[in-house]
Prior knowledge:
Elements: H1 3-30, H2 33-54, H3 60-78, H4 83-95, H5 101-108, H6 115-123, H7 130-140, H8 146-153, H9 157-174, H10 183-205, E1 209-210, H11 216-232, H12 237-250, H13 276-291, H14 298-311, H15 320-333, H16 337-351, H17 353-363, H18 373-385, H19 389-402, E2 404-405, H20 406-417
Parallel strand pairs: 1-2
Helix pairs in contact: 1-2, 1-3, 1-6, 2-3, 3-4, 7-9, 7-10, 8-9, 10-11, 10-12, 11-12, 12-13, 12-14, 13-14, 14-15, 15-16, 16-17, 17-18, 18-19, 19-20
Amino acid sequence: MSPKSETHRVINTVWxxxxxxxxxxxxxxxxDISLAEEMAQDALLVALKKWPETGIxxxxxxxxxxxxxxxxIDYFRHRKMASTKLEEVGRIIEDNTPDHExxxxxxxxxxxxxxxxRLIFTACHPILPAESRVALTLRLLxxxxxxxxxxxxxxxxxxxxxxxxxxxxxxxxxxxxxxxxRGEERAERxxxxxxxxxxxxxxxxxxxxxxxxxxxxxxxEAIRLSLVLARLAPGDSEVHAxxxxxxxxxxxxxxxxxxxxxxxxxxxxxxxxWDQLLIQxxxxxxxxxxxxxxxNEPYALQAAIAACHARAQKxxxxxxxxxxxxxxxxxQVTPSPVIELNRAVAISMAEGPSAAxxxxxxxxDSPALQNYHLLYGVRGDMLSKLGRHTxxxxxxxxxxxxxxxxxxxxxxxGRAEEKNIV
Length: 422
């Protein structure tokens, strides 16, 4: 790889990591999400031009932030805004050094002191439609492209793009404050915020596109923000349940790929590599949700399923009948063909592939699953176990065509080409 290509690779990595904080901090300063995004993008363009010549800065995140602040000052000067506004923005930006960051945050907003959390609550304002809240927050905090969000929503790219543009315009026109609300208003927005964090975590846990199976930084950010929410709302069972689900799922991260980065299926993972501390934290959070009478809420049911795996020292010890039963309850609480697909996997382990395939065939024509690669991957697995190798090969190939994740694609094509299938 040439030095220039390597520099661009590093820039891309840094950008994915720093973009959410950059936009959040700039939004706090500028009180304009669209303008904050523009300034952040300008900083990225400057980095793409300068870093191949000067080398990667020792603190690339701080470099991008400082460059974005300077671009903001230039923007206001160019627009010849009122001198008082320019002085105000300039003072905030000049004073916002690492030594003064904590004091500035405390002075500007409420007790949370977290720009990313403020940005989530701003993007999840009830003035926006639910689907727009999620799309906007995934774009701003998850750093996902419009295409990635569209795949997560099983929607078209143009539809998601329009939602994001309209959402930012609505926030700007309504003058929504950049803050974490208090009291009843906070409670009203909490469910939407949890939904956003759930999707951000899922994107990190199983990336919809790219060369890597996972984007652990997104998982870490979702868990971090959920911990903050748990301190904000200690009596809310859903907060603890979602935190439990994330912690238990994240405990498997280091075991989910092999030395070459290839996926390792759950049943084949080395459970000694599972993070036991995260598992214990997750089980504690799940118990808190149960103590708050939230055991039959969606996140708690999913966390209970994850806990069944976490408690099994060996794959053969897994309580698959209980997992299938939990999925059945979850399907009643939140009916979804995706949940039924997951239930089919549990049924295959508890009762055999024939019973699972029968369930899959009742949902395989669902419109929501037509471009869902896991439908074809799971169906291919069931057909393979039943000895229907030619049909399984076609299903695995279809799944490989649909996924945008290169690791998953390679794995699925490998399944399709296995001698015992072909």
